[in-house]
Write a structure and sequence with these properties.
Blueprint: H1 3-14, E1 19-23, E2 26-30, H2 41-86, H3 94-101, H4 107-119, H5 121-132, H6 139-150, H7 153-156, E3 159-160, E4 168-169, H8 174-184, H9 194-206, H10 214-218, H11 222-229
Parallel strand pairs: 3-4
Antiparallel strand pairs: 1-2
């Protein structure tokens, strides 16, 4: 007997043996009174309020149970991926290879990675798995976590989506596809569109100049500000 079936039975008991009706992704009880049980007008409101509260609580437990099951499936998939990567007698472990790539510190390191991605088909899959472990609450959070892990901020200042004003075009890099696939490995982002992920990438590079104290450095010193006002 699974936890889900136990909770469903508990819902049936709280509703006096009612049936479970499916509505979308949730299951809602269609309650019926106990056979032979009379409900007086004075206690009907109290009993109805109790049944409603119990039903809400039990539905909350079922929803959270499903979330835990999804997270468990994701963890199993990641473990299986890592196990496959450990097979085959590779001379250099996957982790070591990726540590050599990330974080990218300059244009030369980025060009070296692009060359390897173009010539090594298996490398893309491995990088997707590695970067996909970053996690995140939503598409934006996941994108920012992955890019922070993959690219140093000094290099990020010289990259933009389309490569305007002499910057590197991220849109045309092999790394873009790696990042997008890695984002979708997060269960909360599995249905994220290219547009949603692309917008988050654009914003991350756009704000590179403000990170790591960049905004503070651009602000004039108090004395200089006073001089400008005078």
């Amino acid at each position: 007997m699974t936890l889900g079936s136990t909770l469903r039975q508990a819902i049936g008991v709280s509703y006096g043996g009612g049936d479970v009706a499916e509505t979308g992704s949730e299951e809602v009880m269609v309650g019926t009174p106990y056979q032979g049980q009379s409900v007086s007008p004075g206690t009907g409101t109290q009993k109805g309020g109790c049944d409603q509260m119990c039903g809400t609580l039990l539905r909350y437990l079922l929803v959270n149970q499903q979330i835990l099951m999804d997270q468990q499936k994701t963890m199993i998939r990641m473990i299986q991926d890592l196990h496959r990567n450990s097979q085959g007698g590779q001379r250099m472990s996957t982790t070591s290879r990726h540590t050599a790539y990330f974080p990218l510190v300059d244009k030369q390191a980025l060009e070296a990675l692009e060359g390897d991605l173009a010539s090594q088909r298996e490398l893309r899959r491995e990088l997707v798995i590695t970067l996909g472990l970053a996690g995140g609450a939503d598409a934006k959070d996941t994108v920012w976590r992955i890019l922070k892990q993959a690219i140093k901020n000094d290099l990020a200042k010289n990259i933009s989506w389309r490569g305007m004003n002499g910057k590197i075009s991220f849109e045309n890099l092999h790394l873009k596809a790696v990042v997008m696939d890695a984002v979708r490995r997060n269960p909360s982002c599995s249905t994220a569109t290219d547009v949603q992920i692309g917008d988050a990438i654009k914003r991350w590079f756009y704000w590179a100049g403000d990170r790591e104290g960049g905004r503070k450095k651009r602000q004039p010193a108090p004395n200089q500000e006073q001089t400008d006002l005078d």
